[in-house]
Write a structure and sequence with these properties.
Elements lengths: L1 E4 L1 H9 L2 H16 L9 E2 L8 E4 L4 E8 L3 E9 H5 L9 H4 L7 H13 L2
Parallel strand pairs: 1-5
Antiparallel strand pairs: 2-3, 3-4, 4-5
Length: 120
């Protein structure tokens, strides 16, 4: 699995306190080993954030990403729950802008959802 970061994510990450950066790095290592690990609380988002997935970094910090194709994860945003979900459309990258070449197949999404639900 390959990981990419949008410039907005990089900017937000750099502004985080070092302990939160370390927590993200630790969670990312776990995610790459087992994206269904319960500790990560990975789940697809709905509504305005449809197409994004959320990964729990700690009690309040979330990392939002999109899947591109079969093996690319693009981290788009990171920050406090209230800050991320309280932003307007202008403050977040659109999924269409990120994932224009190879969206994940329905089969890949279905398998990931099954894995996530079976680990709950």
């Amino acid at each position: 699995m390959r990981v990419r970061y949008l410039p907005k994510f990089k900017k937000q990450y750099k502004k985080l306190p070092s302990r939160f950066q370390e927590q993200f790095d630790e969670r990312l290592r776990l995610f790459l080993i087992d994206p269904t690990a319960p500790k990560l609380r990975v789940h697809p988002l709905k509504g305005e954030f449809a197409g994004y997935w959320s990964m729990n970094i700690n009690g309040d910090i979330r990392a939002l990403y999109v899947l591109q194709g079969e093996d690319i994860i693009i981290f788009a945003l990171i920050g406090a729950h209230s800050g991320l979900y309280g932003k307007s459309d202008l403050d977040r990258p659109s999924v269409e802008m990120i994932d224009t070449t190879h969206p994940p197949s329905n089969e890949v999404l279905s398998k990931l959802k099954q894995l996530l639900h079976s680990s709950s």
